[in-house]
Structure formats: C-alpha cells, structure tokens
C-alpha cells in the first residue's frame, strides 16, 4: 500500500496534422526522416486551398494591371516621340524594365499582404480577399490608381497625336487613316483598363455594363496587336509563304523524278 506508484505518462495532445506521427495504434514510428504536412492552425485543407487560390488571383490581377500601366506609359512615350521601337530595342527595354516591374511589384504587394494578414485570404462565400479591415483594398487601391493614371496617359496621348499630326499636315485628319486611328484610340480605353473606373458606380445597370465592357479587353488586344498590326501581318505573310514553299517542293520533286523515269 505504501509503495510508490509511477505516474502514467500523459498521452500526447495530437491535432489532425500530427496523425502521421502518432497512428491510431498508439505506437511511435521508428526513428528516421519523417515528412509531415503542417497546416495553419484552425484551417482545413479546403480552406488552405481557397486561401492559396485567393493569393494567386490577387497576384495575377495585380500583374495584369501593372502591365496595363506599363503599356499606357509605353504608348505615351511613343506618341510623344512619334517613333516606333524596333523589336530588338523593345526586347531590351522589356528585360531591363518591364519584366522586373510587371512581375516584381505585384509579387511584393502580395508578399506584404500575405505576411501582414494571411488569415484574410479567402471568405466563406468565395476564394478572394476578405473585405474585413479593408484588406480588399490591397487590390482595389492599385487597380483604381492604375486605371486613373492610364486614363490620364490616354488623354495626353490623344492630345499629343492630334497636335503633332495637325502641325505636320492639316489634311491628315481627313485621310482614311483617321478611322483606323480613332478605332485604335477607342480600343486602348479597354486595353489600358480605363473601363474599370465603371466599378466605382454602384448602380445595377453599371454592374452589367462593367462586366460586359471588361470582358471585351482580350478581343481588343487581339484586334489591335494582331490583326491591325503591320509587323504581325508581315510575319503571318512570311510564315504562309514558307509553308507554301514547303508544299511545292515535294510536288516539283515528284514531277521531276517522274519525268526522269519516263525518259529512261
């Protein structure tokens, strides 16, 4: 009765993430390298996946708007100098400036947001930024700022082009190219993301207009930078000519071999 009893060791308090270390049998796994997946406290795997999706969308949207800003700046500089950069000089500019800014700045914003308030990525209704504590302004702030800046670039570009063309030749405005310039100018409203300013208006009609107008951005990018681009059309012509030459070579070789066989 007076014997001293050894107290029982407490069972390890185990949560869902550590079941790989303490199986249901109660036995520990042998010593050695073990790989366990530690999830954030209080989050299930679907919630973690939703938060990762929200972070990825945050980065991709910010990258899109940053590239819109760079395109607006490039358009303004091109209009001011009335020059078209060659492909080699544009590639150098993209490597030195556009790629680091276009992908680095959004990554920095997302890194700061995720480091400060990671629990606000994802909501019970959707995988997006949580509006609590103004966290959603981590996207809305840069997006609307870039839209306003691009709108200023767009208006300044129109004014510069109009002034310089009218000073060169007064009849330029009456030429057939005016329609093309007007269409490209209107298309750049969509390409530069200026139509995102409609999102500020809370009327239901504006919500439908905002959705329809911004869904056409990819169409206008294809029209302006592919179908209406002279450089792209020339590349397509060169590509089609090379395909035709490759098709005509086997036919000419077949006819010549047939003629030789008939002559023999």
UniProtKB/TrEMBL annotation:
The keyword Cytoplasm does not apply. It is a multi-pass membrane protein. One of its GO terms (molecular function) is G protein-coupled receptor activity. It is found in: Cell membrane. Residues 48-229 form the G-protein coupled receptors family 2 profile domain. InterPro entries: GPCR_2-like_7TM, GPCR_2_EMR1-like_rcpt, GPCR_2_secretin-like, GPCR_2_secretin-like_CS. Keywords: Calcium, Cell membrane, Disulfide bond, EGF-like domain, Glycoprotein, Membrane, Repeat, Signal, Transmembrane, Transmembrane helix. GO terms for biological process: adenylate cyclase-activating G protein-coupled receptor signaling pathway; cell surface receptor signaling pathway. Pfam families: 7tm_2. PROSITE patterns: G_PROTEIN_RECEP_F2_2, G_PROTEIN_RECEP_F2_4. One of its GO terms (cellular component) is plasma membrane. Coiled coil: none annotated. The chain crosses the membrane at residues 59-77, 97-116, 136-161, 181-201, 207-228. Belongs to the G-protein coupled receptor 2 family. Adhesion G-protein coupled receptor (ADGR) subfamily. This is G-protein coupled receptors family 2 profile 2 domain-containing protein.
